[in-house]
Amino acid sequence: MKYAVLDFETTGNQSFDEIIQVGLAIIEPDRTISQVYNSFVKPSIPIPPFITGLTGITEEHVKDAPELDEVMMEMVPLLNDVVLVGHNVAFDFNYLQSALDKTGYLPFTGRILDTMDFLKIMFPSLMSYQLGMVAAEFDVQHDRPHQADSDALATALIFLKCLEECESLPLLTIQRLVDLFAGEDSDLGWFFDALLQEKEREANPNEGGFTYYRQFALQAEDWMDIETPRNALLDNPLEDITFEQFMDQVRERLRERLPQYEEREAQNMMLHEVMKAFDEDKHLLVEAGTGTGKSLGYLLPAIYHSVKQDEKVMVSTHTINLQEQLRERDIPLLTEVVPFPFLAAVFKGRQHYLCLRKFEHKINRRDFTTPKEEVMTAAQMIVWLTQTINGDDEELNLGNRGNDFWETVASESDSCLGRSCPWFRKCFYHRAKHEAGVADVVITNHSKLFTDIQAGHQLLPGYERLVIDEAHHLEDVAGKHLGINMKYFTVIHTLTRLFKDSKTGQFPNLRIQLQSSVNEKSAEWCSVIDSFYPTLVDVKETWDKLNELLFTLMPERSDAAPGDPGQFVFRLLPHKKPKDWDTLAALENQIYVSLGDVLRKGERLLSQIREEQDDIGSESLLTDISGLLKDLGTEREALRFFMKLDGEDTVYWMEGNGNYRSRSLQMYAVPIDVSAQLKEYFFDSKKSVVMTSATLSVDKSFQYMIEQLGLQEAASEDRLITSMLPSPFNYRDQALLVIPRDFPSVKGSVGDDHFVTTLVRSLADTAIATKGRMLVLFTSYRMLRQVYDPLKELLSAEGITVIGQGMDSGSRTKLTRRFQGQDASVLLGTSSFWEGVDIPGEALTSLAIVRLPFQPPNHPLVEAKSERLQKEKKNPFMKLSVPQAVIRFKQGFGRLVRTSQDRGIVIVYDTRILESYYGKYFLYSLPGPKMEHMPLGQMVPRISEWLNPEEQS
């Protein structure tokens, strides 16, 4: 097969836009690139500045270029008898057809393949399918992105990589792909057909390295074979070895592996504090700033303790992100430097693992809701099975719609057949659980810790020692898990999976199976299933009505701009129920009764069928239905708990969004104070709990955290060690904090014109002085929106890009990557950017904090906590609002200096930090940067002088 890889640069992407450059790379049947044809094309319309900015192609380049006629005359012969390939090929194909038409040639009728499809299927774990990112990942030279010849050549090289990968697939996987695309009349299906014929002709295909089972090729082997890490060792490798001796061996190996390794005082202190807590059965609060190396600071003592004492240590992180970082970066390093074998297993929530039984079922029955997208996702996952050992969804790049697909094939406890499942020995969830069982250290997340508590400790292996990283989130996560949070769609999803219409859903599937069975009770069972439909339809209608009425209780937004949907929040007070609450309670009761009826009859029906039918085909279906009924039962109880509104220690509220109205409704019922539960579950029952984070202290004291987490008793009984580690960085030289003392102030979450204009002007001047490389943190999304357009306009003339969270599409990680990838850019972020974003080095030089990060005082949870403190005659502002804001402020400040080489500026535009009595708590909590305040007019010169001292002298 001969391929022609095509790329056009055009004046835009509308039908009237024109081609300005052509790139065409020809791949011969022997897989060599025989030529790259390239030419500018003279357009009849001017090139927009945006396109010049993107491609670097100017009017100068095209003014003497050949006309389209001439270019097509050279290009058409090259397209003879080829398969056309492109990256997002539809775009280039449309321009090709229109160019052929304009210049009097026949349309192109050959096969067309898209490298995007190949990348998705063959490399399902790539983080991004954007051409530049993929080229970097594959080490493909791509010097001039967005120029046609460079793009065409890079695409051709990437396509060759995909072809290589296709050929390395086992025969069985290719057969599966051919089956999958069989119904689709597509060129992709044609390609896999041809590949299959070629593969079948090979005399002895090399099929090694895979496990074959039930017509799938897998990378993972039976998990039953995973043994404890030191099975072969008779004696304990740490028999007579002290922690110091162990650390000496580790440090020696670290020096061999990392020539630039240097001991850090703070890390050594942390190693000893953690070890001391383990040895003396105490709890530890340890604040370790950026650069301490805190992951190794707790992992090394954890490994030493678990191996020496033969006692498992549990490590919990707040985000899956950090869990992955430990798996990808820290554990492999430790495996090399710890002088004996050990096992650290990562164990996530169950929904992160693929259920092979459900996946097989879905593929074999082609149970697809949106066939075009879902066939693609299924293809990705069939190939992924030949690559993955963990079966964990974080490894997959599924795109937006893929998440709905994942939900239907994710592992769940209620639909698990356990040992009677044909896939049991290959099951990814049971593998993770088994690994956690034999591991020395288990890495999980806060969410799973609480799910385990709710499941009566059935999920995680038993543990006596726990390390909690990112511990400043523990209280928050506890509240979410020990309370309830229900979405409108929670119930809808469960109902639709049971029964979408009379043909689709698990009940209709069961009915179809019963109809074809010979059992004399089948007819009776079918009529029971039929009787469920009207009830479930009623439940859905009543649920819709209840959500609509609940949504009408939401107040009009006082701070919302006209036409701005915004986020609604409304608190419900047990002693002051809204009027007409009885009407709503009656609807809830209707749902409660109807569902109770379906649940009882449903369970009875399932157990009757189970007794009569030995047919394994319906066994998995019965288990799935039983799981969905359990979900409905849980949702029914949660709704009742919410609607009763009778918990004195619970805060009830609803949230919604003006755009999606009642469909966006969420109901919350959360304990006001979780400290008593944390004390009971962790501090009273575990031998030692180590809590660490970069932000645990306020004004050099741990008192706030001790109270929030329920550690008072441990502290008074001398069972709590607290430690603030010195920073490894020299903040006096590395960071300058400036406060413009005459900056206008703001009332509420939205700035007046004077404030916004002054802020935009100042941000623009600073960004020009620091050549972009600036992160601006807002506390309200509305203010970010006020600043975005005017700032973008001011900076575009300077060649500085402005990227705004929520304004530019993409997740937080994608926006951060874009920011790092562009030399001169300014990133505007709100809440989630205050922490966890890591931008080391040159990419970030200045950080602007627009307002001190106080939580909105009217948030129901903050409100309820404040009321409780007032009852106890305490000042809620000083006891709650200030400490929370200080911790957030320290998190924000921590974005700036990430390595000992970083230098940077922090600007705080909120003058309350100077004028108010509480401002000093913010400043004293920082790790000692140089602080200066001055009139706004002197700020930019001072920043330039500090950043470039050599130019001044």
TrEMBL record:
GO molecular function annotations of the record: DNA helicase activity; hydrolase activity
Residue intervals of the Helicase C-terminal domain: 762-937
Residue intervals of the Helicase ATP-binding domain: 253-522
Cofactor(s) it depends on: [4Fe-4S] cluster
Alphabetic keyword roster: ATP-binding, Exonuclease, Helicase, Hydrolase, Nuclease, Nucleotide-binding
CDD domains: DEDDh
Amino acids binding ATP: A288, G289, T290, G291, T292, G293, K294, S295
EC number: 3.1.-.-
InterPro entries: ATP-dep_Helicase_C (IPR006555), DEAD/DEAH_box_helicase_dom (IPR011545), DinG (IPR006310), DinG/Rad3-like (IPR045028), DnaQ (IPR006054), Helic_SF1/SF2_ATP-bd_DinG/Rad3 (IPR014013), Helicase_ATP-bd (IPR014001), Helicase_C-like (IPR001650)
Catalyzed reaction equations: ATP + H2O = ADP + phosphate + H(+)
Keyword Hydrolase in annotation: yes
Pfam family, one: RNase_T
NCBIfam families per UniProt: dinG_rel, dnaq, PRK08074.1
Role noted for this protein: 3'-5' exonuclease.
Family assignment from sequence similarity: Belongs to the helicase family. DinG subfamily. Type 2 sub-subfamily.
Name recorded for this polypeptide: 3'-5' exonuclease DinG
Organism listed in the record: Paenibacillus puldeungensis
